[in-house]
C-alpha cells in the first residue's frame, strides 16, 4: 500500500467530461433525485417510445427491479443505426488478429450491414424474441456481429468463453435451453489452435435441445460435419438480406445471460435486461474512460467475460466509439505485442487486467520502451485488486507518468463499473478504486450487518438499485434472492471485502466467499472440487486460493484418494487433465497435494481457513485449531506440503 497521491493534471481536469466540481454535483443529484438524474441521462440513447416511470422496486421483499418502465428501444439500433447519418463511414470496430500481419476494420455502415444480414439468418432459423442462442466463438469479428444481431431481433444471447470445456458448454446450453449454437471451426491464440467445433460437437451430443450449429470458418481446418444440423456461416450470410428492421424491445426485456461462478458448484445465469444496462454501460464508458470523439479505445478482455460485453461492445458502440478487439495474447509473437498494437492503431485508451500487467512487468521495461505509445492518454484496470507495485509500473513505464489509471471495480452482476476514479475529477491512489459512480451507494458492513461509518474495514454492499444491475438469475429467482439479498437485509451483497479510508476512498480487498480470482477469472472452489471428485479414484477434495505472483490467486487442491487408488505422478497428471476436460484450462490446479485426510470440525465441516493458511505457507499462523476433530491431519498436511508450492 502506498500513500502517494497522484493529482489530476490541469490539462486533464480541463478537458475531461467530469471534473471535480461536476462529479460532486452530479453524484449528489444522483442520490437525492435518482429519477430525475437517470431520466435525464437516459436521453443519451434513442428510444422508440419514452418510459412512463424511471425506477421501480427496491432491495426489500422479492427484489423485482425495473428501470425506464414502458420505454421501448433496441440495442443494435442504438449501437449502429443511429450513428449512420453522422458517422456511417467512421470505424466502429478494429479487429487485430492473432498474427500481427492480420487486421480488419469495419465502419459503422459495414458492421450494420453484417448485423442485419445475420439477424435475418437467425430469423430464417425460426428464432424469435425471447429465444436463447448460445455463442461459443473465439475473439473474431463474427462474435460482435452475432451478439448485435441477437439484440436486433430480441433474441437473448448466452456467450460461453472459448476456453471452457465441452462439459461446461453443455451445462450452460442446458440451463438456458438454447436451440441454436454459434461456433467456429477453430480458434487461434498465440499461434495455437483451439478445437472449438470439436468441443461444440461434444457438448451438443449431450444437449438434444440444440437443433442447429452455425459454424464460422476461421482456420479452415478439417472438421466433422453433420449435414442438416451444421450450417456454414459464410453461405448463410451470402444469401441473407441486409434489410432487417430492429425489434422494438421493452426496457425490461432480457438482453443477455452470462454465466458466472458463485459459492456452489453450479454456475449462475446472470440475467441483464435492455434499457438500464445500455444506459449504464454507455454512460460509465463515456465518463470513466473519458471517451471523446477521435479516441481509439482498446479493452483487452475476452468477450466471453462481462468486461468484453460491456466495454468492448455495448458501451463503446452505444457511444459511437472506435473499439478494438484482439484475438491473441500479450506474449505472441513477443512481449511487445500490446505496445505494438497500441502504436499500430494509435490507441489512446487502454483497459486491461492486473494479471496481464504483472506478467508484462516481469519481462522488464525493454519490450515496452522500444515502442512509442505516444497515442496513449488513459489507462484502466479491472478484474482483481491491483498491487501498488504493478500500478506504479503501469503508470511510470507504460503511461510514462502522463496517463491517469482508472482502477475499476465491478462484477458480472453489476453490468457496469460501480466504483472507480473519474480521471478528471479525483487524485489517484495506487491500489484504490476510489469513489462510487453516479447513482451508486456503497456501504461497508460488519459480519452482523451493522453499517460502519467513516474509515472502516468490512464487507462491501450496495444499498440502492442502479440501472445496470442484474435482474435475476435465469430461471431461479430464489437463488438470486438467496445469493445477493439474504446475507444482509435490504442491501445487495457483493461478496467482496473492502476498506474505506479517511478520505472516503474505497480499497477492494478481495472475495470473502468461496470464489477465487485466477488471472481475473472468477471460479468457484466448489466447481473445481466437484470436477475432482467426479474422478473415480478421488474420495474427497478441497480447493482454496493462494497468493500467486502473476495470476493474483492460484488454485491449490487437496485431494484424498480412495483406498484402492495409490497416489502417483501419473495420477496427478491425469487429475490435472481431468479438470481441464471437465471445466477448462483456467481451472487446472497450480498445486495438487495428496491429503490422506482433510482438517474437519467435529461436526464434519472442512476447515478451509486452515487449508488456506497451509496453501499460503503461513504455517506459523494457523489460528485456532481447537475445534479440529483430528489435529494430526494438519501436521501431516504441513509436513508434506509440496516443496514447489
Ligand atoms: C473482482 C469482472 C479489485 C472482485 C468485471 C469482484 C476487482 C470480481 C476489481 C468480479 C477491482 C473486479 N479491484 N477487485 N478493480 N474488479 N474485481 O464477475 O472480487 O468476472 O467481485 O467481473 O472481480 O468478477 P467478474
Structure notes:
A hairpin with a 5-residue loop joins strand 21 (442-445) and strand 22. The protein has 21 helices and 31 strands. Helix 8 (166-176) packs across helix 9 (196-205) and helix 11 packs across helix 12 (306-318). The protein has 645 residues and is α/β, with parallel strands linked by helices. The structure holds 5'-O-[(S)-ethoxy(hydroxy)phosphoryl]adenosine (WTA). The site of 5'-O-[(S)-ethoxy(hydroxy)phosphoryl]adenosine has 23 residues, from helix 12, strand 20, strand 25 and strand 26.
Spell out the blueprint of helices and strands.
Layout: H1 10-15, H2 20-32, H3 34-41, E1 53-56, E2 66-69, E3 72-73, H4 75-79, H5 84-87, E4 91-96, E5 103-107, H6 108-124, E6 132-136, H7 141-153, E7 156-159, H8 166-176, E8 180-184, E9 187-189, E10 192-194, H9 196-205, E11 212-216, E12 230-232, H10 233-238, E13 249-250, E14 254-260, E15 268-273, H11 275-288, E16 296-299, H12 306-318, E17 322-326, H13 337-345, E18 349-352, H14 354-362, H15 366-369, E19 378-382, H16 388-398, E20 405-408, E21 442-445, E22 451-452, E23 456-462, E24 472-473, H17 477-485, E25 492-500, E26 506-511, E27 515-518, E28 521-524, H18 525-533, E29 538-548, E30 552-561, H19 569-582, E31 591-594, H20 608-615, H21 631-639
Parallel strand pairs: 4-17, 6-7, 6-8, 7-14, 8-11, 11-12, 16-17, 16-18, 18-19, 19-20, 30-31
Antiparallel strand pairs: 1-2, 3-13, 4-5, 9-10, 14-15, 15-24, 21-22, 21-23, 23-25, 25-26, 27-28, 29-30
Helix pairs in contact: 2-3, 6-7, 8-9, 11-12, 14-16
The structure holds 5'-O-[(S)-ethoxy(hydroxy)phosphoryl]adenosine.
5'-O-[(S)-ethoxy(hydroxy)phosphoryl]adenosine is lined by residues 260, 305-307, 382-385, 407-412, 433, 494-496, 508, 510-511, 517, 522.
Amino acid at each position: 500500500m502506498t500513500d502517494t497521491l497522484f493529482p489530476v493534471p490541469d490539462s486533464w481536469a480541463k478537458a475531461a467530461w467530469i471534473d471535480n466540481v461536476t462529479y460532486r454535483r452530479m453524484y449528489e443529484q444522483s442520490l437525492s433525485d435518482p429519477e430525475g438524474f437517470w431520466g435525464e441521462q437516459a436521453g443519451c440513447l434513442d428510444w422508440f417510445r419514452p418510459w412512463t416511470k424511471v425506477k421501480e422496486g427496491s432491495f426489500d421483499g422479492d427484489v423485482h427491479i425495473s428501470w425506464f418502465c414502458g420505454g421501448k428501444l433496441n440495442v443494435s439500433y442504438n449501437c449502429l443505426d443511429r450513428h449512420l447519418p453522422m458517422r456511417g463511414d467512421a470505424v466502429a470496430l478494429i479487429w487485430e488478429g492473432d498474427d500481427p500481419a492480420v487486421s480488419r476494420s469495419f465502419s459503422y455502415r459495414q458492421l450494420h450491414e453484417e448485423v442485419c444480414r445475420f439477424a435475418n439468418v437467425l430469423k430464417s432459423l425460426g428464432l424469435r424474441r425471447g429465444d436463447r442462442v448460445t455463442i461459443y466463438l473465439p475473439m473474431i469479428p463474427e462474435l460482435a456481429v452475432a451478439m448485435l444481431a441477437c439484440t436486433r431481433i430480441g433474441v437473448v444471447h448466452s456467450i460461453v468463453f472459448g476456453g471452457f470445456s465441452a462439459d461446461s458448454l453443455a451445462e450452460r446450453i442446458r440451463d438456458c435451453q438454447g436451440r441454436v449454437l454459434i461456433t467456429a471451426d477453430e480458434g487461434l491464440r498465440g499461434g495455437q489452435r483451439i478445437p472449438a467445433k470439436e468441443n461444440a460437437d461434444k457438448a451438443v451430443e449431450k444437449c438434444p435441445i440444440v437443433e442447429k450449429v452455425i459454424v464460422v470458418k476461421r482456420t479452415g481446418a478439417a472438421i466433422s460435419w453433420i449435414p442438416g444440423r451444421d450450417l456454414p456461416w459464410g453461405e448463410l450470410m451470402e444469401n441473407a438480406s441486409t434489410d432487417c428492421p430492429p425489434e422494438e424491445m421493452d426496457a425490461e426485456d432480457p438482453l443477455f445471460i452470462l454465466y458466472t461462478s458463485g459459492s456452489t458448484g453450479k454456475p449462475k445465469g446472470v440475467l441483464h435486461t435492455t434499457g438500464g444496462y445500455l444506459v449504464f454501460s454507455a454512460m460509465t464508458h463515456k465518463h470513466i474512460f473519458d471517451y471523446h470523439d477521435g479516441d481509439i479505445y482498446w479493452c483487452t478482455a475476452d468477450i466471453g467475460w462481462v468486461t468484453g460485453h460491456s466495454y468492448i461492445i455495448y458501451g463503446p458502440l452505444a457511444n459511437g466509439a472506435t473499439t478494438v478487439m484482439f484475438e491473441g495474447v500479450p506474449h505472441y509473437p513477443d512481449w511487445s505485442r500490446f505496445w505494438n498494437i497500441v502504436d499500430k492503431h494509435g490507441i489512446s485508451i487502454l483497459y486491461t487486467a492486473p494479471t496481464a500487467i504483472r506478467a508484462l512487468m516481469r519481462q522488464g521495461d525493454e519490450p515496452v520502451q522500444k515502442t512509442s505509445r505516444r497515442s496513449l492518454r488513459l489507462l484502466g484496470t479491472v478484474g482483481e485488486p491491483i498491487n501498488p507495485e504493478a500500478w506504479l509500473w503501469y503508470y511510470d513505464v507504460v503511461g510514462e507518468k502522463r496517463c491517469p489509471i482508472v482502477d475499476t471495480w465491478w462484477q458480472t452482476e453489476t453490468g457496469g463499473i460501480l466504483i472507480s476514479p473519474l480521471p478528471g475529477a479525483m487524485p489517484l491512489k495506487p491500489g484504490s478504486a476510489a469513489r462510487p459512480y453516479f447513482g451508486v451507494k456503497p456501504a461497508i458492513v460488519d459480519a452482523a450487518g451493522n453499517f460502519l461509518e467513516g474509515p472502516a474495514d468490512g464487507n462491501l454492499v450496495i444499498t440502492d438499485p442502479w440501472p445496470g444491475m442484474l435482474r435475476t438469475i435465469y430461471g431461479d429467482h430464489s437463488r438470486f434472492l438467496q445469493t445477493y439479498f439474504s446475507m444482509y437485509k435490504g442491501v445487495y451483497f457483493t461478496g467482496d471485502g473492502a476498506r474505506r479510508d479517511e478520505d472516503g476512498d474505497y480499497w477492494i480487498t478481495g472475495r470473502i466467499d468461496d470464489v477465487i480470482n485466477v488471472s481475473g477469472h472468477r471460479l468457484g472452489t466448489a466447481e473445481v472440487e466437484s470436477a475432482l471428485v467426479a474422478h473415480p479414484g478421488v474420495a474427497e477434495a478441497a480447493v482454496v486460493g493462494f497468493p500467486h505472483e502473476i495470476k493474483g490467486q492460484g488454485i491449490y487442491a487437496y485431494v484424498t484418494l480412495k483406498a484402492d487408488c495409490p497416489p502417483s505422478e501419473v495420477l496427478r497428471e491425469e487429475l490435472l487433465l481431468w479438470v481441464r476436460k471437465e471445466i477448462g484450462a483456467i481451472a487446472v490446479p497450480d498445486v495438487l497435494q495428496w491429503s490422506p485426510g482433510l482438517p474437519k470440525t467435529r461436526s464434519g465441516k472442512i476447515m478451509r481457513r486452515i487449508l488456506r493458511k497451509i496453501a499460503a505457507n503461513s504455517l506459523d499462523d494457523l489460528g485456532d485449531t481447537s475445534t479440529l476433530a483430528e489435529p494430526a491431519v494438519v501436521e501431516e498436511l504441513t509436513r508434506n506440503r509440496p516443496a514447489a508450492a
